[in-house]
Amino acid sequence: MYEEEQEIVDFIQAFVSSPEKEEGQKIKFLRAICNLCKSTRYYTLSQRLDVFCHRYELAENIKVLLQEEPRDQLSRAVRQQAMLAITELSSVPTVLEGKEDIPLHTCFTSVFLLPPEEEMRSLESYLYFQTLRAMDTMLETMVRSCSATRVSEQLQSIFQMLLNFTNSERAAVRERAVGRIKVLSLLLAKNSTLKAFAKYLKSSERADIVLVAIEAMRDSSFSEKEAARKVLHEVMRDPDFWLADVPKITSCIHKNLGCINTESARQSVESLLLLMTDHYPIQVVTSLLKFSPSADGTSMAMWEVMLSAPRTLEVVFKEQLSKLQDVKSHSPVTSATEDACTPHLALMASSEIQSERSGDESHIESYQRHPSLRTVSLLLESLITLSERPDLARKIQVLRRHMEEVFHNGNTDIKMKVLMVFRNVMGHLKRTEASAMALQLAEELLPLFDDESSQMRELSISLFRDVMETVVGKDKRRMKKKVRRGLLPLFFHMCDETDSVAKVSGEALITTAELLKWKELKHLVQTQQTWRTGECLLVQDRSRAEEYLSQSLPYLGDAQATLREMAVRFIGLAARPLRDQSREKLAEICRALQPMQEDSKPAISSLALQTTLILNSPRVQRTWGRSLRALCCGCC
């Protein structure tokens, strides 16, 4: 070797012995190493080359040269030549064996910590890409040249170094490290060594390989995409081993799916998502909800893939329902405390991730006692959006029974979201399909007319109006029996202090009158003759007068003054027949009115006193009608 390459050998010996090294000499030294290795391979004179390299510490000298390079600029080719020199040394048996880490970490540090590409000048940018290409070649050569007994150990070491850089606070450093992981992952896929190497990886490293394969599906060349598809194929053959971090992989799919345009690549990623959903439905769905509470285009695409597995959401709902029931049955938290959390659920759904990223855990701590409530709420938000599409709305029907259970166990927020899903689903069904669902839903809506939340009152009443218009055939006759129970609440809420609730109550009462074919009631509501509407209810269905009275009594304690006043006036009207029928019942009504004489609203307290006096006074036929009309005419 010395005889063939005497000049090169002499220069290397002189360079490593010199205390001062100029830039030109550095480049010449690195090129000399490359030429020496190539020549020895060409002349098959590589025997004892390792002795020469160790004696003059070539790997250590390369490390020193890299450390001397400025961190804030890339104005010369020393880094690139250093990578090429290490590449050549790697191709010579035993030269770097056991010393690979010495130059590698220095290479990574020297290149990864450079300023972002956009801050480089044109020459620096050119050198930067040449240097990265040289680094990738170096990594491939080091892996290919490594002995079979050490390849797994070597890969483990390289991956670990790269993974450390992926935790950097600087985005450019993270991107460069991930890019090198991608290169190695593709190399593994091409050379069929992935299975053999996998057993040496930690769970986080296995997950990172999956992430790199997904990212490689974006804008990579055809060969890289094919290699990445092979990686995913191996992953799907043993999901329990490879899918070590389902939330992280789900997030990666969400981040990249919209940028994967090749049909075959997209199919591979979607197949992975479907397999994950089948094996780990709760983790996948919960992860998708957490980083995407509002359904964007990519989320919708992912939901559509997931819904092609019909049991996915059913499994998730069953799980969350079980947790929700456990909270109801065993949690020491009272219903009052749970209700106090309700107003924050909507805020939590939209801001949880931002809070986690900013370190603000105040919201999260407040929901530790109700984890399933938050998850169900987020899930329902996505289902609301999904149910707006006809094809997906029909698939969501599989969840109907489970959503009904969630509805019964949930709070106001959850109940409203379930109702919105049902409304959307019914809108996409045929009338005959929706009719039975509407009939059952009407039963659930009636108690919600008097909910403390004005939004719930408006939603339940408007939906009640819609379901009455949906029923057909025999269901229409059955619906007539149910809607009679809603007549009085709708009548009262025509005076609701929330204008939108008052408006929709009138509309629902008109629809009810049409269903019952009560033309006079419909006319009185349309012409806003409120006090005559009350009289019409009593006249139209005299057999329900006592039931109307019982329904009226709870409104005496309503938070809304308009409804309390409405109740007093209607009770005065409905109690009239009791003067001749049941003095005992009349006395009960008067006792119920007595506290109203102390109402905070003077108009209500005065009205309650006047009504009580009239009901207790001897009946005088000629003044009775005039007195009752006076009571009713003040109605809203």
Structure, explained:
This protein is mainly alpha-helical and 636 residues long. The chain folds into four domains: 1-141; 146-279, Leucine-rich Repeat Variant (Alpha Horseshoe), CATH 1.25.10; 303-429, no CATH class; 541-633, no CATH class. It is 73% helix and 0% strand. It has 38 helices and no strands. It has helices spanning 6-17, 23-42, 49-55, 58-68, 78-90, 101-112, 122-145, 151-165, 171-190, 194-198, 203-215, 222-237, 239-242, 246-256, 263-279, 281-291, 297-307, 312-330, 335-341, 345-358, 362-366, 371-386, 390-396, 400-409, 412-427, 431-445, 454-470, 474-483, 487-493, 499-516, 519-526, 530-540, 545-552, 561-574, 578-581, 583-593, 602-616, 621-633. The N and C termini lie far apart (109 Å). 38% of the residues are buried.
Proportion in helices = over 70%
SSE class:
mainly alpha
Largest sheet: none
- Oligomer kind: single chain
Distance between the termini: 109 Å
Structurally, the number of domains stands at 4
Core attributes:
mainly alpha
What's the structural blueprint in terms of helices and strands?
Layout: H1 6-17, H2 23-42, H3 49-55, H4 58-68, H5 78-90, H6 101-112, H7 122-145, H8 151-165, H9 171-190, H10 194-198, H11 203-215, H12 222-237, H13 239-242, H14 246-256, H15 263-279, H16 281-291, H17 297-307, H18 312-330, H19 335-341, H20 345-358, H21 362-366, H22 371-386, H23 390-396, H24 400-409, H25 412-427, H26 431-445, H27 454-470, H28 474-483, H29 487-493, H30 499-516, H31 519-526, H32 530-540, H33 545-552, H34 561-574, H35 578-581, H36 583-593, H37 602-616, H38 621-633
